[in-house]
Amino acid sequence: MDRMTEQELTDDVVARFGNTPDERLREVMQALVRHLHAFAREVRLTDDEWMAGIQFLTATGQISDNVRQEFILLSDTFGLSMIVDMINHSSDTAGVTEPTVLGPFYVPGSPERGFGESMIEFEDDGEESIVSGRVLSADGTPIAGAVIDVWQNSANQFYAVQQPDVQPPTNLRGIYRSDDEGHYAIRTIRPTPYPIPADGPVGAMLVATARHPMRPAHLHVKASAPGFRSVATHVFDNRSEFLDSDPVFGVKDSLIVEFNPGDDGLLHCEVDFVLDPS
Ligand code: BEZ
Ligand code: FE
Question: Does residue 198 share a domain with residue 104?
Answer without folding.
Answer: yes
